[in-house]
Structures are given as structure tokens and as C-alpha cells.
Amino acid sequence: MRGVRASGAQELFVKYNVWTDRYTANQVVIVVAGSDRSNTQAAETRHSETVKTRVLG
User: Could you tell me the pLDDT band of residue 2, with boundaries at 50, 70 and 90?
Assistant: First the structure.
């Protein structure tokens, strides 16, 4: 996996149950990132269906 700071990088990170108190059970944290603005926008376009699927179930 390349780092998100590498030129042209586009990444999708998904973590489950990051916080462990009783008020935040079963959360999903999704981060879409790119090496700059245009790559972040491209990553959002590229991963939008995946994000929708994970958020909506």
C-alpha cells in the first residue's frame, strides 16, 4: 500500500468500532483521502458506491 502522501495517491480507509463506550456502539468511520485536492475528489468519485453501500447497508 502506498502512503496517501505519495503523489497521485487515492485511498479509502474503513474502521469499525473505533470508540468503545456504550454511546457509540457499532459505528463505522470512513475516510476518503488523496494526496491533494484533485486526488481527494477523484478518490471520492472512485469510491462513492463503496461508501454508500457501507453507510446504507
Answer: low
